[in-house]
Amino acid sequence: MKMPHGIMKKLPEDVILCIFLRIPVKSLMRFKCVSKNYYTLLQSTTFINLHLNRTTTVKDEFILLKRSFKEDINQYKTIFSFLSGDGDHDYLNPIFSDFDVPNMTDTQSIIFDQLVGPCHGLIALMDDFTTIIFNPSTRIFRLLPPSPFDRPKGYHRSIKCLGFGFDSVVNDYKVVRISEFLKDDCYGYVQVEEENVEIYELGIDCWRELDHVNQQFPTIFWVPCSQIFYMGTFHWIAQRVILCFNMSTEIFHHIRMPDPCHNIRNHSLVILNESLTLICYRSVTPTSDPIEDLIEIWILKDYDVSESWVKKYTIRSLPIKIPLAIWKDNLLLFQNRSGYLMVYDLRTDNVKELNIHGCPESMRVTVYKENLTIIPSGSESSTPVHKF
């Protein structure tokens, strides 16, 4: 967008604000260089929040796709692809060049990593050891410091699950990590001795342990796309329940799954029609029994009310390896068993394989809209912020 600076100077500030809210982020970044006033406005918390919460439609949504390719034995290359839809069609076009993701190069990382967000515009890519926070619009990222807490002597630490969300009370982003300490007994069997919850706050650049956790956690399934941040709370798929952690109160609770889903093997969490949604799929390999190949999509109509689950869709015989996201409220994105990205239209039952592939189980997707959210820099000794 081209606009002479002299004309802009004559416009009232509220008019300039309305204009800036309609300009793509790439152009807004250039406007920062026009004048000190524009730089101050575009960096202000007020404008960033207005821009983040502006009225948008599904046409303003973009897709961040993470996938990996094998380069050598136990060595992988992981990339981000930034994609957009073309009108109402279900194919995807790149909006930036692909970006090589550092620190995510081994088998453990590409199968057990999690892509979480967007959370107030920011997204986290996480595995057992590494957390990368980034803004896909400004292409700014920060590698967070590892937890300083070590396992007691003679114990093994096992990370059960990870989460990333926003605490609206203290106005800061948090990373949560649940782990357990394991010890071999005298017969050589592994025993769980203790469970532990750690919190990292980005703004103050500090790890701490929760000291009020006195509950036994359910079995948590660390599988792709089995966690999500929603309504100020982080959610994980667990045995028969969804384990929830409120980012502000730092208290855990459960949401029961629908009874018909208790015996279903695989589950994913997505957002559909702005509601928490559970995808239940029974098998990752084809079966001769059509009932075993059914996929069910359940919507929680009233948040935190387990009795309000409603089955929205039943889908037959899709070659799903991993459900990834629901886009435009009707397009289910998933990776098939051959490693390709596919899209299924929930309204028309049409399914299409896209010309995008990666190692099986390595794909992760999040749907985001453009934003200017700044990654908290923490203290002077914090890990630095970088640009892609």
TrEMBL record:
Listed transmembrane segments: none
Pfam families assigned to the protein according to its UniProt record, in alphabetical order: F-box, FBA_3
InterPro entries: F-box-assoc_dom_typ3 (IPR013187), F-box-assoc_interact_dom (IPR017451), F-box-like_dom_sf (IPR036047), F-box_dom (IPR001810), SCF_F-box_component (IPR050796)
Domain of life: Eukaryota
Ranges for domain F-box: 5-50
Protein known as: S-locus linked F-box protein type-5
Species the sequence originates in: Petunia hybrida (Petunia)
